[in-house]
Records
---
Amino acid sequence: MKILRNKSTITAIAFVLVLTISAILAALPAVTAHDPGWTVPTYGYIGTSQDPIGVGQALGIIMWLDKTPPTAGGLGGDRWRSFTVTIEKPDGTTQTLGPFTSDPIGTYYTFWTPDQAGTHYLQFHFGGQTALLNAEDLFPGAEGENRGVIWVGDYFEPSDSAKLELTVTQEAQPSYPGYPLPGPNDYWDRPLQGDIKGWNTYASNWLGGSQLDQRNFQPYGVAPNSPHVMWVRPLRSGGIVGDIHGDIPYGPDDYESPWSGAIVMNGIIYYNNPAWPKSGYYAIDLRTGEELWFHNESVQIPSTLTTSGFDYNAPLLSETYPGLSFGWNYRYYSLNGQGVWPFLWINSGSTWNMIDPNNGDWVMALTHVPGGTTITSNEDGDIQSYSYSNTGGYLQEWSLTTAIPRTGPVGSNALQWRPRVGAWVDAVNDTTWTVYPLPVDRPGRSGNLWTAEDVLPRSGYEWNVTAPKGLGSIRKVVENELVLFSTSLPAHVTTTDVQPDTVTFSAVSLKPATRGQLLWTKEWTVPSGMISLGFGIASIEDKVFTITNKEKILIYGFSLDNGNQIWTSDKQADWNMFGISENYAYNTIYATGYAGHLYAIDAKTGALKWDYFAANIGGECPYGQYPLSISAIADGKVYLYSTEHSPTKPLWRGSRIRCIDAFTGEELWTTLHWGEGGVAVADGYLVSANRYDDQIYCFGKGPSATTVTGPEAVQPLGTAVMIKGTVTDQSAGTKDPSVMAKSPLAEGVPAIADENMAEYMEYLYQNKPMPTATGVTVTLDAVDPNGNFIHIDTVTSDMSGMFKTMWTPEHEGEYTIIASFAGSGSYFSSYAETAIGVGPAPSPAVPIEPEEPTAAPLITTEVAIIAVVIIAVVGIVAFWALKKRK
């Protein structure tokens, strides 16, 4: 029997009442039933979540009795079954809500929306009831339950609450002031505040295992729109060795990939140690790549000895350690609390080890976990495994939460679920409580009346029903709907056995009222031609399941309602003969393989919606195109990678992660990346390991920083000023010295346009040449001295991160200059401010009057002649004086 699952919204007021009324369990006498039965008075109560309330607004109504159903406990026992509420409206009409069945502690919560203004009167009614034990047992494997047996056969009288007056106004009443979620370009981080609702539109986890329905489809949160790298982290020695080894890379373990994918929970990445002998696991921060802790499991969890090769009778030659298998978020609801339990699990054969995600410590182990088809409950995250006996017809469901026993067999402990720290619990036949001595019956002390039935061994199976025999194998489980079966599918390539000419498909109900009943069965004639068939996907949404034909390279679609074949797809390219891989999301089947195509096929009709092709580059890939596999589908995008399970070395070049629009087939972005193991998509980031360099990459939107400056000195009015600044990438990876060495800036790496992002990230992190790139768009605005907002310019930074513009202010005074980067597919937004001062314009210049020139004396002809004569005479005298000296 599963622990209580929260199938309705329980508000704070209801939960307080749950806690309060649970104490009444201790007040019931612990004696045997009596004859004649008693008549027990009851008292009814009613409350609302808000008063007054507006027309059209949902009102929470809670109703309860003073007494709990005496035999209720967990999923077993009785319930109050005749709760109703009458509402007297202002127009004189009356509306009745119900009847309702209470929860185990005698309360019920519902919603009602008033449709007219005025005073309303609400009254709760209990119709009276004789207490029953009910046929359901509180504990699987037991034959009955003694809780409240004293009251069985007693009559609990009807009761009515007092009338509750409610005021309904025409105008809506204010609700709690909510906080908006961040915009698409606003940075956010974990933990996510509980008073902001709707985080699932942004946030998500990647838990692995059966928690990703339809093969790597993540229906929640956002995913990267750009190949922007947040950080890289070495996985192990990687890349090309060099010297005598040439272009051969490290790591010969292609069949034992060091990267098996990651688990992401609450913004933390968990992954297994890639170093031989692969003992332990890491926890690192999703946004920064910072190591939070490493746990060496070899000191705590027993190892698994394995043999070499395929001869299982050979001596034990090597020792390996089990690694993390999946993460688990279990939504728990009980008398004393509700919320989500997070754990990690390490599966080693039929032993499952529970791990504390906060520090990596071992918590407990489940042994003898049965095999089967495993799903994750969409109701509470419980892990369920379904098995079927083809010869006996037994259909069973095993539950992880049922396999772990509750705190105790009776009393409120029977309703509490806690992992049993340090325990080794048998997942099928637990005997944890059988070591307890049976307590002595002490009258007046409820919860201590045990019987041998209370402590019988318990089974981890929730239920076991009889279904028709000979249905074949379970192919798909749809929770609370059906199990799809088929008989053996032909596989002519792998066996020489006689192959069936027909295949029978069947569906068995999982609805509680009809569980185990055959819904339909259909025999289908296998197409001729010695073909091999394989099971594909099944969708309850589109009522379809698929079968692939290996040799004819196509897909058949069948109705999930009756098993009839409803369509046949077009033939796919020949290389897909080696296997068609199918994924399902958005009413579409996405098919990939060695042919290098991503086919998008309408799930209802089988028609091809679009076809994306990964063409070869320069004959690099020996297949003539790059083989494609789907690593994840999330946020309306399909993420592809190319790899090979046993590649030749050196590795071929040109393998890429490819992001494809899931609805149009448009290629949104790609980047060089040889896929290695699985990926994880959570909180808007994609995490994968790259075989080209054996590093872990985290792709997604990173934080940015904007700066802006203007002239320090006050500028005269009418003078143009230079405004400049930078926009930089502030992601954790840019703080690495080897990355910063490639940046022209001291404060970070330039922010680059989305269309140049792949080449620029390859330059920063993969030693590729520096590309030609542009920066990002920056809006420049000002607030003038009068408080007016002025748009200055819209500019684009260059590949050095700098932007600039000239601007002439129109007024004197102080200006605030604002530079805003709105964000992009690669970066969150950022902005910066600076101030400039504008002083008065210079005074108008006074023109300088030129001075009047002074008149020069006139030189007459006579004066000139006399001057010439004098010069001549002087010259003659000097000549004769010199001559006499000789």
---
Amino acid sequence: MGKGLGSGKERGGASRRAAAALVALLAGVSPIAITTPAAAQAQSEAVEFDIPAQPLGSALVAYARQAGVQLVMTEEAVGTTWANPVRGVFERQEALSILLRGTGYRARFENGAVRLSRVAQTGERAEEGSTPDYEDDAFAQAPDSILLRGEERQLPNTEEDIVVVGTKIRGAYPASSPVEIYSAEDIAQSGAVTTEQFIQRLPQNVGTRTEYASTATTTNSFNREAVSSIDLRGLGVGTTLTLLNGRRIAPANFGQTVDVSIIPVGAIERVEVLTDGASALYGSDAIGGVVNFVLRDDFDGAETRVSYGGVTSGDLRRGNISQTVGREWGNGNGLLALDYASASSLSASDRDYADTSIFGQADLTPTTQNQTALGSISQDLTADLRLGGLLALAMRDVKNVALLNALGAPTAYRSETFHTFADLGLDADLAENLSASVSLTYSANNVDSSYGAGAVIDTEYSSFDLTAVLNGVLFATPAGSARYAFGASYQEEEYLGTTTANGVTPSGRTLGRTTSAAFAELLLPLIGESQDAPLAHRLEFSVAARYTSYEDASEPRADQEFGDRVSPKIGLLWSPFETLNLRGTYGESFRAPSLSQMDPSGRLFTLQQGAAVGGVSSTVVALGGPADELDAETAETYTIGFDYRPNWLSGFELSGTYFSIDYSDRVAAPSTTAARANPSAWPELIHRPVSADELEEIISSLPNTFNNTGVSLADPEAAAAALFARLPNLWIVDSQTRNLSVSTLEGIDISLQHRAETPIGELTLGVDFTKIFEFVEKASENSPTVSVVDTVGRPADLRGRLRVMLGRDNWWTSLNANYVDGYDNPLAFASAGGPHEVDSWTTLDWTSAVDLQFEGWGRTRLSLTIQNVFDRDPPFVSRGSTLQFSPAFDPANANPLGRVVALSITQAW
């Protein structure tokens, strides 16, 4: 089954394994790895490799797949040796030498074959790119080696069927888009022990929705479920598309955003991050980018993982246990994975800096229990037809003591989430250069929550998606094959919410929508590597477009139609030299508001006496919930970047990407803090009522959730008259969700990495950071432009990570320094000390792991992680309009955990 954005399953892979197994058995060996043979390919051809450090047997499997060579070997030939990582563009022989360096094995290409043998001295290291000499007679007689030759072990010649992030095309990739791929080893080496922690370490991501003090900021005010979501670029929830094996996941948090904490970190094979607008390929929610979690599925054996840890100051403890079992048979494979994780809470009283006079005994992190079960199966029906399926069930129980409003006491909040994800796919080879795939995906989230004195909020969100894609070669050129993908999709969404709490979204209305789409993508190579053109080692052009049409399916109808739109994207890659790629993209996005954003039952108002407007104590009528009319969002995204891998410095990589996003008609609740200070400049948001009739209309049509004016609202006409008599200091503050005029964002991503062999092992140095030059918003055409970068709850202008790793044989150790730049807090309340500067924050994470092998016991990995080694507190942030329920830090840019120590054991049986 294809993984869409992730990795498509190699069609016929199981049948090829069976064929190779038979050949190997006839030869008297036990095969452990087979990939597509390419004996005729020149070993000098450069190939891009991404092979993490791992046991040699599995590393050779990965090498063979990426290099396009056949590989069959005996288990005794590699034993328990640990291979070196290989990342970058190398010739096949050079990559193989790097992978085997220090392992006690050497290999070379010879007459269309690969020779693998054990060297005399196990610790001897081959020079990078060298071709070792072998004694042919000794090699032929060695009992622990085997000659790999394409013509002798002929298998069906089928290309590997890969779909890479940022494209629908199989077997090729438009390298014009900025993409990062993180393996399971990368996640482990980052110092993260959960999926959400790894996501929070990405410099491009902002913690708009996290479990940390989940009601502390206005951006987190509806996150009492303590979800952890992805918000690339900090554009807001719902602007980053989160996928599982290339398929959409039902959002939690009132149908607003996907909760990544339901994905067990041990089930992840890799994470693919596209930091570019991709609505032309995937439709809505791909304005800021796409993150795809690819689960493990091709696994033969059993693996048990156990981890336990906690903070060194406080009561928070976290434990996890998982079991994975996989089996391969002649023409298919299956996998079952079970995971249980739990964490106790971190109370505000455990942190001296937390403002307990305001935040009380509330939780800085919740008590959680996560249970996940997933199973996958893949089966060859014929040589050209493959069926695959995935079923995942997740339950999440959250207990969160949080504040409900600025004047309330901490209140216990409880939520139980049940998530279902099911995917069924069929892949078919129709001809030599033509394939098709069809997938059916169902995803649903049911959330039952309660708080306070019996108040209940229940929400249900479900989506059904049918997608069909045709892949093929349009024509051949001297530069290579022009490849295309063409397809169509149909999606049904439904959102239902019920509540016993007056005025709290939702209130029992079923909202629905159907989305029809057709899409096409073309990858056209203009100049190829083999053409040896001056200043044009490689030149390729890509273009994609998606037609999307929305229809309302609500009961009763919401009468909000968003029409249809074509979203295009183009990309260009130019490599003037083999070592340098220059790339650029332009794309447009079209996104309808989420169903919960459209729910009119969320409209409400509050009455507050003594609120400041224009520096004067006033009575404020504040409106909340969605405005009457919401329109679709649109965006234009530009990227310009480069990738540099010099051949004079092996293992060095430098990449940079400039990004610019013009985000129009963004659906969000405007910040009214600046407007309250200068109401005349914000007439659309803050104004005086023109008549008592306007007040009467508000009182009679909207629920009231807070009133300290002393005016009874039982009789709307009398109440309106009493309030209207308070003019001129009676204001209407309109904080309803609406289409903001524009958000403009621009910045740059930089990534630098260098790998070098040292006498004590392979040393890796890396730096990743994101610098935001500008991020401004306007609430309307007539409103002032406001900068939101470097403000509480929004992105800091500079975030980065420095990593150092040393690995050799069966161990590695890594250090990761995480940095968030300082910024101002101009909106702090005068009673809390007034505006002040928020310090920068640097923390250090250390992780070390060792692999042990015991006879008859399998492989055991022990790892120890210490997060925030020096136990640095988050920077102090004073209470203000964007940090109303103050834990004294900004949850979007820091966390309260302090030093965390975790020990884990992984046992492969």
